[in-house]
Specification:
This protein is an alpha+beta fold and about 650 residues long. Helices cover about 15% and strands about 15% of the residues. Residues about 60-65, about 245-250 and about 615-645 have low confidence and may be disordered. It comes from Ignelater luminosus.
Length: about 650
Amino acid sequence: MKFGYLSPSPHSAGALRTEESVRQAIRELQQFSGLPVTGKLDDKTIKLLKRPRCGLPDIEPHAQRRKRFVPQGQRWPYTNLTWSLQSTNLKELNTYEVRFVFSKALEVWARHSKLTFREIDSDRADILVYFHRGDHGDNFAFDGPGQILAHAFFPGTGRGGDAHFDLDENWLTREDDNNADGTSLFQVAAHEFGHSLGLSHSSVEGALMYPWYQGMQNGFNYELPEDDRLGIQALYGVYEDQKWDFRPTYHPPPTPPTPPPPRPTPPPTRPTRAPEKPRYPYYPGYPGYPGYNPQNPQKPYYPEKPSYPENPTYPNKPHYPEKQPPYPEKPYYPQKPMHPDRKKHHPHQNPYNPNKVYPPKQYPEHTPPDRRIPHRPPFYPEKTPETTTTYTYPNYPRRYPERTRRPTHTNYPKERAPPDTCDTNYDAISVIRTEVFIFKDRYFWRIGDNGLLPGYPAEITRMWRDLPRNLTHVDAVYERPDNKIVFFIGKQFYVYPGDRLERGYPKPLTDLGLPASLEKIDGAMVWGHNGKTYFYSGNMYWRFDEELMKVELDYPRDMSMWRGVGQDIDAVFQWKDGKTYFFKGKGFWKFNDLRMRVENEQQTLSAPFWMGCSRNLEGSIPGSKAPYTVALSSGIKHNNPNNYFFTIIGLSVILKLCALIT
């Protein structure tokens, strides 16, 4: 959705998607990036999603999907553009190097178009360049080191043409820096300035406007690929002096150097040969050193060295005893007498002291209790001489109940047919992302501005996958003021920021301050009359504080405050018209928030009003009728005699007041 493959949502929490819409978005992503179109998150697609890239979407909403360069439609009305670096306090980067890199990146586009760029020190320049971190107020928040590197805006007023770079990235500003963990600022800036000039993303891999980062290529001498040249020239034209689609650079021929004047030739001379030195080393003071004679040097005399035998023998070598004396013999220990066997002695005699005899200990007799469970004595019937055997049992009271087999439970509910759209009651109703969601059993419908959406009812677990797999129904649903969706199922509640369950859920209802004896919630809504959240169950209701995440202290209260509604409602919600609707059975009441009572005591049929079903109750087309047989009434009792009694008293009081006035 962030990059245009899914339709945007009116809320920041994200739109709710079906599986088929997600598969279609994956196919479009694979087709745009040049991957094999499978519709699945295979290894290549996951690897592509993890690559660093530009933060602008690849596909604009309602735009025609095209290959090659895509002129966005907006261009500067003039070709002499100015730019300025507004973020000057860059502790991690050298400001002069950053400005030099940006000038080189703009020069890439100037070489192949009529554009010229000039740097000025002013905030009124056409292209303003900033370095930011995280959320910086333009709905394109940075995510720290990693995926989103930068983004830029197309030409226009306000932020038009501005370029923003993520300060948390490891930017490389030098041409010869080959750090594998860094990102080339030149390559990313050249891409973002393409957006500032009016070009969108290209699906041609290798093009400069390809949305995914491709690394440094040819340093600052980078030349635009053909796809990008055609795009920029379609917006601003070709440079007038260009030839063969590039701006020629004039290099004057080098001037040949002036040759030096010739030197005068010296007269020829006869070469002299230097005397040779002796080839032996010179040792001063050596005896017998011959006198130096350069014509016939004499080799010095070296006396012979004395020779020594390799293995000399020493006849008078003294004898040394061994270093370690021999170990003495192991000492003799007399054999320890064997202890007599205890079993051979008297049972009360101490084997260590045979003269001492201990008397036997006396223990009281103890009979263990009989813990056996009494059973009915066996009965053996008497056989009769007839051919059949008749058994007669005495009428005795049964002591133990018969064991019943525990029923086997499955993790999945029984498959049920989807409920009839035009003949059913509702479990829960809520406005989610400006659409009405109606829940019944395991299914739900969606109602948009143009009525019931096609393809519904659909299973609830297809939209919200982390709900229990054995889900049979939901009790209540409402959207919180922070756009998170809350499901009530039994004694637990689930919170969804989008279509995925928030970490730490489900939680028990007691975490909301509700009593532990409460079995379920019948309905929940945010009442537009005061902006408070209300929970309904049976004949009681609670008001919930969304800031403290607890119900208020002076609750619960009786449902009689909501006159005409009664108790044990099925669903409640507030529609986009600001009115509150209570549902029970196959009908509903419209509630007047100012008078605190239903507008009409008689219920209105739900299916014709909300589902667009036919009001012809005698029709025979399935799904187009609502066969109601019993008139639906509100929670007000019409046959109570007390109502007539109080009505008569009220009329009499009014008549007396009128008589006194007259």
